[in-house]
Specification:
The chain is mostly helical.
Length: about 80
């Protein structure tokens, strides 16, 4: 039996990561060495989708932009 691993993300990081995963998982031409890599990304996307409510809000674009702004490195 496989041992579970827990990853901890802030809500902003989870929103940004979810958006990237959702976009990546629908792009053509992405390359995997093994189908297991694709399966893990699908699982992560589904897990975030069942946890986050933000992607289903009508103002998701603004929520995402704000989350990206908070996660991004500060400009000097």
């Amino acid at each position: 039996m496989a041992e579970d691993v827990t990853l901890k993300l802030t809500r902003d990081e989870a929103i940004v990561f979810f958006e990237w995963l959702a976009r990546f998982n629908t792009e053509e031409g992405r390359q995997f060495v093994d189908q297991a890599e694709q399966r893990v990304l699908w699982y992560l996307e589904a897990s975030l989708e069942s946890t986050l409510v933000e992607p289903f809000k009508p103002d998701y674009d603004q929520v995402l932009a704000a989350a990206r702004s908070r996660v991004r490195d500060p400009t000097e």
